[in-house]
């Protein structure tokens, strides 16, 4: 379920006296007290049985009293407890500059209306009454802007990457970063799911109908166990390209290697199965392939491994080519062989497929293990590229970072609002709706999606005293990566960091930026969506 976050930023005593009407499902966090154990903020109020009305001042005072009086005796004198009590008391001092209170609760499934007399209903979400401070109401987590991030733009991100504040970078990637390699993505306009014609697949009428209703069905493990051919036919062109080494890394793949060489990369976590991060030269430990890999295959029953070359030779003989006109492989059979590619051990319990995770199978357990959570909690910068952020648990990773971790989305269209990200013009929209929500009669609106700029660097700066840390760059992902590296002075690294050449389109983009840099002193425009 998506999380709604009601954020109050206080800069004076009037804000401390503002009253929160807290729903039973809400908990309250103080961002300024975030630490390694509570990277999003220290919880000062938990979920409860009833709705309550309480001022911010009393909320903080109560939390301090509870630490002093209600913890077990053996914990009361611990340095950590005494230090937290001291920090809570200091928040109430006149010289305290900023306090950020975040109220988290399940997001409503649809817009709702609150009217006079409804305030005590336990079914209604939390709200702040009129008073000092600035309120934003978002489906996401705005967080805090670190001092080393001068602006929520590519230029600002470039400056942050070069600063001493940026020491640990995580990259989260999806299929969109491989389109310039010649591999189709899934959910974009013209992507695999939109262009898939179920009638060309070796499927029963019932299976075709299920795929037509939900194209993701072609990648469900349940269907593969019953009939492996639709999935193998859809993936035939990719397996051929991988086996024949036709695909080259893009700028987005090379970025991981650039950061690794500069000692900044913690890890790449990818949904992709094409293995191009490894092809770019990253070590096995530096890449977590959450959805498996197509660089080898395995029996769906016994797990017997089949190397890519042998798997392709078998597919080539047994699986038909469904590309337009069937021109990708003139030697392909006209019809697929029932049963697909048999198990090499003849186990009788399954057939061979790429070693990838299908819908209905568990993802790599490392995706949510202690190491991954620890790396995310310590990250200074997270770059999210080419993913729709729709598939759990991968889409939950952006929310596992610190309040001041910079999050950058490089994508063809706006994504991430349901994964906790709040962009500049989305924040402006929710400030407007939040102002409506402060009166006696108000309507809570879901935040508007960020607008699409006219070009790579068009858009708005983040707004609000919270200090936004999320950056959305729309357009060709390799264009964004090249622009980012050009601004950082790392453009040459994109061409020299790998032992293999860039994909042709990616190389052309880098050459364009290199030539432009050589011929003009004009810097990267300081604007971004």
Protein described:
There is one protein chain. The protein starts with a strand and ends in a 10-residue tail after the last helix. It is an alpha/beta fold and 529 residues long. The protein is globular, with a radius of gyration of 26 Å. It has a six-stranded parallel beta sheet, with helices on one face. Strands 4-3-6-1-9 form a five-stranded antiparallel beta sheet. The protein has 17 helices and 20 strands. Helix content is 30%, strand content 18%.
Q: What is the percentage of strand-forming residues?
A: 15-25%
- The residue fraction in helices comes out at 25-40%
Largest sheet: 6 strands, parallel
The neighbouring-strand order within the major sheet is: 12-11-10-17-18-20
What class do helices, strands and sheet pairing give? alpha/beta
Runs with pLDDT <50, length 5+? 111-122, 425-467, 521-529
Average predicted local confidence, pLDDT: 82
Give the overall shape, derived from the CA principal axes: globular
- Count of helical regions: 17
- Straight-line distance between termini: 27 Å
Radius of gyration: 26 Å
Number of strands: 20
């Amino acid at each position: 379920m998506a999380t709604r976050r009601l954020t109050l930023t206080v800069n004076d005593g009037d804000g401390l006296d503002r009253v929160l009407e807290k729903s039973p499902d809400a908990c309250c966090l103080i961002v300024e007290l975030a630490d390694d154990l509570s990277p999003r903020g220290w919880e000062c109020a938990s979920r409860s049985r009833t709705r309550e009305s309480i001022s911010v001042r009393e909320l903080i005072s109560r939390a301090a009293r509870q630490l002093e009086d209600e913890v077990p005796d053996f914990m009361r004198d611990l340095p950590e407890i005494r230090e937290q009590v001291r920090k809570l008391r200091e928040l109430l001092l006149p010289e305290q500059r900023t306090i950020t209170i975040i109220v988290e609760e399940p997001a409503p499934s649809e817009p709702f209306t609150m009217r006079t007399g409804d305030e005590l209903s336990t079914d209604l979400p939390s709200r702040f009454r009129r008073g000092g401070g600035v309120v934003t109401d978002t489906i996401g987590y705005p967080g805090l802007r670190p001092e080393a991030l001068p602006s929520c733009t590519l230029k600002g991100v470039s400056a942050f990457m070069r600063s001493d504040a940026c020491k640990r970078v995580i990259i989260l990637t999806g299929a969109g970063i491989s389109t310039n390699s010649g591999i189709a993505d899934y959910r974009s306009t013209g992507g695999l799911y939109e262009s898939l014609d179920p009638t060309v697949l070796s499927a029963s009428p019932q299976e075709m109908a299920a795929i037509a209703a939900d194209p993701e069905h072609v990648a469900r493990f349940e269907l593969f166990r019953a009939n492996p051919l639709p999935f193998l036919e859809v993936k035939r062109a990719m397996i051929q390209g991988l086996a024949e080494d036709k695909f080259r890394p893009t700028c987005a793949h090379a970025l991981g290697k650039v950061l690794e060489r500069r000692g900044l990369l913690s890890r790449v976590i990818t949904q992709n199965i094409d293995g191009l991060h490894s092809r770019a030269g990253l070590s096995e430990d530096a890449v977590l392939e959450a959805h498996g890999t197509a660089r080898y295959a395995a029996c769906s029953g016994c797990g017997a491994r089949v190397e890519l070359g042998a798997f392709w030779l078998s597919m080539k003989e047994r699986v038909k080519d469904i590309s337009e006109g069937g021109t990708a492989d003139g030697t392909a059979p006209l019809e697929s062989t029932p049963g697909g590619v048999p198990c090499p051990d003849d186990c009788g319990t399954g057939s061979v497929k790429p070693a990838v995770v299908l819908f209905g199978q568990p993802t790599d357990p490392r995706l949510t293990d202690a190491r991954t959570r620890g790396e995310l909690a310590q990250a200074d910068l997270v770059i999210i590229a080419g993913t729709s952020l729709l598939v759990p648990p991968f889409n939950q990773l952006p929310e596992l970072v610190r309040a001041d971790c910079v999050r950058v989305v490089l994508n063809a269209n706006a994504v991430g609002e349901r994964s906790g990200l709040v962009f500049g013009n989305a924040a402006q929209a929710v400030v407007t709706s939040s102002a409506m929500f402060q009166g006696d009669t108000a309507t809570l609106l879901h935040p508007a999606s960020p607008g699409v700029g006219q070009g790579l660097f068009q858009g708005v700066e983040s707004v609000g005293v919270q200090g936004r840390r999320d950056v959305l760059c729309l357009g060709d992902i390799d264009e964004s990566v090249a622009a980012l590296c050009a601004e950082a002075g790392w453009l040459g690294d994109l061409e020299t960091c790998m032992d293999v050449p860039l994909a042709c389109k990616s190389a052309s983009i880098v050459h364009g930026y290199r030539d432009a840099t050589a011929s003009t002193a004009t810097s990267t425009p300081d604007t971004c969506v």
